[in-house]
Amino acid sequence: MLHLDRILHALRGPGLLSVLFTRRPSGSLALRAGCLPMLAAVLVLPDPSLASERIRLSLEEAVRMALRNNPALRVERYGPLTASQEVVKEKGAFDPILSLTMSGSREEVPASSVVMSSEERSLDMELGLEGRLVTGTEYSLNWTYERYHGDSSFLTLNPYHLTTLTLTVSQPLLKGFGEDIQTTMIDVAEENLRASEFGLRMKAEEIVDSAVSSYYDVLLSEERRRTAGLSLELAREVLEEVEARIETGAMAPVEIYKAEAEVAKREEALLEAENALRDGLDLLKAVLGMEDLDTEVELTEPEPPLEGPPDLKESIASALSHRRDLLQARSEKRRLELLERYYRNQMLPDLELFGTVGLNGLSGTPSGSLDSLLEGRYRSWRIGLSLQIPLWRRASKAEYLKAGYGVRRAEARLKELQQEVRLEVRRAWRELALWLKRIEAARKTRTATEKRLEAEEERFRIGMATLNDVLRFQQEYTDALFEERRARIEYLKALSRFDKAKGTILERYTAER
Predict the structure, then answer these.
(1) Is 225:270 a contact under the CB 8 Å cutoff?
(2) In angstroms, how far is CA 207 from the centroid of its own chain?
(3) pLDDT averaged over the chain?
(4) Rounded distance, CA 280 to CA 214, Å?
(5) Strands 350-363 and 97-108
(6) Which uninterrupted H or E stretch holds 406?
(7) How far apart are CA 328 and CA 193, in angstroms?
(8) Is the pTM of this model over 0.70?
(9) 86-to-132, 197, 206, 257, 340 alpha-carbon distances in Å
(10) Kindly report the CA angle at 486 between 478 and 426, in degrees rounded to 5?
């Protein structure tokens, strides 16, 4: 029976010396045949004990690190922040405006009659508050004060102080009528915010899927390295046996070249596996947002939940409810519907009801002018209708038609996207079922190749099998070991892709609900 754990322990620990060197009869150490490339790799590889930092990551911890540190996701987070300020900006259209104006003047002109003043001095002040309500009602409240002094002898009060308080209100009756129309741009900005948030979550799902895939790719590379190491150790055992047989004359000396060539070939495979592992670790660290790529990372391998795929109809229904791209498409359709309704209203005539009421006060002193105003003896009012009818309405009609075309296009795109989602879920579901079957097939293949190798090694020891047969069965066995692990890891990757297709990948790998 083969002892994989013992061999791998020797490759990782002090037993590595026995793999690289053999002891001569004189007691000195000699480099084994074909071990020079492996020795060079060992010398180049950094000593884990000298690493500046070593972290141990589970899959869930890796996902959380990616969501926290990934640079691309960090950039995407500014989208909703920017869109939220657009909502605030549109709401600001209903903010009241407070105004204050003060001015003074002096004028000297030739008087054309005794009634007119040749010298005039005045001081003016105006305090106003104006704004627009969500109903479309525009209001303006103004208080004015004027102090006037002239040199005309016909002035009864000189100087005189005039104050007025005026309230003006206007209400659209057709174009711009109603709270729904007035708040359209706020609703549009809120839909843009929702779409931006869905975009952020889609980017987060993409990052999670990339982190999960990279995590499993590293585990797969580690498995490739382990099986490559096992394959090399098995070839070295055969080489030792060939050397012993040649020394006893039980085998032709030429057979040594075939055994050494196979050892060199498997050493090269081990070096390639090491490089692939380093590349995979670099990619994983980049996805996780780790700035120091020299940080040692140790991954904990999750146990795959080997269970049948869930109900397909329920999975499709879940996808149609949870997929962020569908939610984003629905939000875009809603945004265009709001604009279509708004521009339909903008084609109506501009009919406006307006009214003004005011109080006036006049006195020779500022306080007297204010008292006169508050008494309410001098009042004024005005009411009326204003009507404007654009003759061609080409601009507003073009905007309305453009928004309508956008709605129809969004509806067609939504149906197309729903069909794509259904197909993606069905494909991911079938892939998940396929890898479950491959796991069982790979297990049976590994068991069969292990038994065949044990039998072939026994036949080789008694001279009934050739060296080529043993080497071939060794390669088949190590390949089967790798394929069994690969099937399990690919199943986990398929499970992640299935969750992404359903739109529930964040819920699976994070605490988010």
Answers:
(1) yes
(2) 7
(3) 84
(4) 7
(5) unpaired
(6) helix 394-461
(7) 10
(8) yes
(9) 19, 14, 26, 75, 20
(10) 150
Paired with 56 in beta bridges are 298
Q: Is the pLDDT at 369 greater than 70, yes or no? A: yes
User: 397, 459 in Cβ contact below 8 A?
Assistant: no
3-state secondary structure of 100: strand
Length of the chain: 513
Task: Give the H or E element holding residue 145.
Answer: strand 138-150
pLDDT band of 133, cuts 50, 70, 90: very high
Q: Rounding to the nearest 10 degrees, give the CA dihedral for residues 191, 195, 197, 198.
A: 140
Residue with the two structure tokens 């009934």? 464
Q: Of 91, 92, 146, which is closest to residue 124 (Cα–Cα)?
A: 146
Give the end-to-end CA distance of the chain in Å, rounded to a whole number.
Answer: 49
- pLDDT tens digits, one per residue of 268-295: 999 999 999 999 999 999 999 988 888 8
> Which amino acid is residue 298, in one-letter code?
E
Q: pLDDT tens digits for 22-43?
A: 544 334 444 444 444 443 443 3
- CA angle centred on 124, ends 121 and 127, rounded to 5°: 175
Distance between CA atoms of 132 and 11, rounded to whole angstroms? 79
Q: Which helix (H) or strand (E) holds 44?
A: helix 36-44
CA 256 and chain centroid, separation = 58
Pick the closest to residue 106 from 160, 143, 147, 154 (CA basis).
147
Which residues, including other chains, have CB under 8 Å from residue 303's CB and lie 6 or more apart?
none
Q: How far apart are CA 340 and CA 176, in angstroms?
A: 14
Please name the helix (run of DSSP H) or strand (run of DSSP E) that holds residue 350, with its range, or none. strand 350-363
Local structure of 173: helix, strand or coil: coil
Whole-number Cα distances in Å, 165 to 162, 248, 270: 11, 123, 92
Closest CA to 58 of 513, 396, 510, 466: 510
Output the CA torsion 366→372→374→375 (10° steps). Answer: 160
The residue behind tokens 């020079």 is 36
Residue written as token pair 């900005």: 189
Q: Using the 8-state DSSP alphabet, how is residue 133 labeled?
A: -
User: Each residue of 241-257: pLDDT tens digit?
Assistant: 888 888 888 788 888 88
Helix H or strand E segment including 256: helix 255-287
Contact 407, 333 (CB under 8 A): yes
Q: Is the pLDDT of residue 427 over 80?
A: yes
Distance, in Å, from the CA atom of 395 to the CA atom of 326, rounded to the nearest integer, reads: 32
Angstrom distance (rounded) from CA 312 to CA 183: 42
Q: What does the alpha-carbon distance between residue 434 and residue 84 come to, in Å, rounded to a whole number?
A: 45
Name the DSSP letter for residue 94: G
pLDDT > 70 fraction of the chain, expressed in percent and rounded: 85
